[in-house]
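Predict the assembly for these four chains.
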Amino acid sequence: MMNKERKIELFKEKCQTKGIKLTPQRLLIYEELINSTEHPTAERIYSSITQKFPTISLDTVHRTLETFCTIGVATMAEGLGNSKRFEGNMDNHHHVHCVQCGMIHDVYDANYDQLLVPPQVSQEFKILKKIVHLEGICRKCQTEYENMD
Amino acid sequence: MMNKERKIELFKEKCQTKGIKLTPQRLLIYEELINSTEHPTAERIYSSITQKFPTISLDTVHRTLETFCTIGVATMAEGLGNSKRFEGNMDNHHHVHCVQCGMIHDVYDANYDQLLVPPQVSQEFKILKKIVHLEGICRKCQTEYENMD
DNA sequence: TTCTTAAATAAGAATAATTCTTATTTAAGT
DNA sequence: ACTTAAATAAGAATTATTCTTATTTAAGAA
């Protein structure tokens, strides 16, 4: 955990080293993001910013958040793409998700099944589901990337 | 793990006990769901079914999958609602998600941080992220439900 | 078996989230 | 100040999901 001024400093350096421009939009979006604890959507950030910066477009917020993930100053909370995914497998299991092709595989692991919910969480939530969510690139997509130069 | 005939039998019983009608659409969707290992979207199931049952509507597939989750014969793979959620917190942490109001809280837990990736997974995937995803109902939403009668 | 009725469905409109296209603007190095 | 590739704004397009309403049907009752 570090203070916000320091994070912003590092953000600016990151833009430098990654060779992307430090625009007022990007700075505002970054500030909004790190000031929020609510894991905001693009739309949510857009509405907050639109007060101070009325000409910004929602598309820019989307693109910018994507860029932030790419350069490693933000992440997208776990999710499985834009569509809901369903399964009829009600056995206790976990998931690994290829962020490239979207494939989800089931993971069976006894250690994962035994995870305990921390007391400070179970005090505040009635927990309905515990799952270990792994994200990565599947072998097939790795190969495709290799051949891509 | 049980065979499909048995699952379908149990599905029919569940419809009975839950008092929902056993329609041809529901049966087809259920069969399609348990025959698939790909954690399909509503759209995906719709296209598979539309061959055998050309008059089915996509909306029915959506509603039906929702119903299946409610009666406990299917689940929606972990996700955080219809919108992407972002965060600037790059420290190692985990999430608990209220499925009612959508709130996400960060969870810090040393045990969660030490999870190992099973070999059969790391052989097939380059893992980029490991997160424990908890789902439940937050205290506030629990209270609101109590007062709802 | 036929009748009844609440539940379920189909169709299409509506809404919501995200991405694309294109013309214009601008950050940042020269 | 000049140049230029990158970034942005605006609006259209696409994709996912939900809503509305009229019709159909499963399943229990007669």
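The CA atoms of residues 14 and 71 of chain A lie 8 Å apart. Residues 20-21, 23, 25-26, 55-57, 59-60, 63-64, 82-84 of chain A lie near DNA strand D (CB under 10 Å from a C1').
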